[in-house]
Fold each of these.
Amino acid sequence: MHTITRLSAADFGNSLKSLADLLVDAVDDGSSLGFLTPFDQEAAAAWWRTRQPAVDDGSLIVWGAQGPGGIVGTVGLARVTMPAGRHRAEIVKLMVHREARGQGLGRALLTTAEQAAALAGITLLLLDTEADSTAEGLYRSAGWTRYGVVPDYAAEPGGSLRDCGFYYKQLG
């Protein structure tokens, strides 16, 4: 069993190495998260560092699932800061270390973010993911609705272009 906790700004800053390890593992395993291989710890930590200001100001909420060696799963909730969009947010960077997959951790992380969004008064969630991926199956089974597919939207870690599915979920 993994413990999922919201990372405070200080916790986030102190978890950069563990978050970077997780991101490197996901990219090395072929997850389309916006990065190309080769992708190393330094590049991953640098990317996470760029997220610190958003965590500090609350526009990005990040949860981590702790395992014996550090964070083995994460999900983020990116809040819209413009007044007309305060009712919506985006699920970002849901990932689970390959050694922790198949145990329901991805679904638990997704549920955690959805519940927090609802408690914060968010009524509409959005996300995107590689079309025909394992992640897409998770989102569909969790009640998300695909509203479109964009061909050749993003490159997978090896550089090949992949289609992307765009999803929404209305809360409450």
Note: The beta strands are 3-6, 60-67, 70-79, 88-96, 124-130, 145-155, 161-170.
Amino acid sequence: MRTSTHDAAALLRRGRALEWATLAWNVVGIVVLAVAAARTRSVALVGFGLDSLIEIGAGLVVLWELSGTGAARQVRALRLIAAAFLALAAYLTVQTVIVLAVRHHAHHGVLGVVWTAVTAAAMFALAAGKGRTGRRLGNPVLVAESRVTVVDGLLACAVLVGLVLDATLGWWWADPAAALVIVYYAVREARAIHADRQDGTHA
């Protein structure tokens, strides 16, 4: 189904609004997570804060791409988003190995648990909106960035589960173990973006 010029303009505005909402959430999140991590000395919360930085970077890439047109701009944007996925996977891998090696035990804190729970719900909702908007626009960059937001939501769930299991059952290793799931997902999405770019190049 073709999208009219009026509808396309409305979808572009919606896409930008969703990106700005994601950026604002993650900027606030960095501050909240910094406070929570300082109180609990949680490596997982520090990692989640760095993931928020990656999400901010990906959001800025999409806003840049939505401000113009052209295949070359989309290719560069997709390359940057794939790089963000790989950076996240690399960081989480290193963090998980270190935490497991030193048997790091974080303190317990309500702020981290509440924020990650609310963030998970917000990121999944934003990701769904971006995905729908990107598909209607036929914009692969917005669709790809919606998957970055899904990873952000999944990571929030992983951190939340780890914090809760550590606090209730003393399973200090639950959080770094759950992070390995996010590593797999991030690498898979980076490869999918690369494959999509290759298909587009050969089309």
Note: Helices lie at 5-40, 43-66, 71-102, 110-137, 140-169, 174-202.
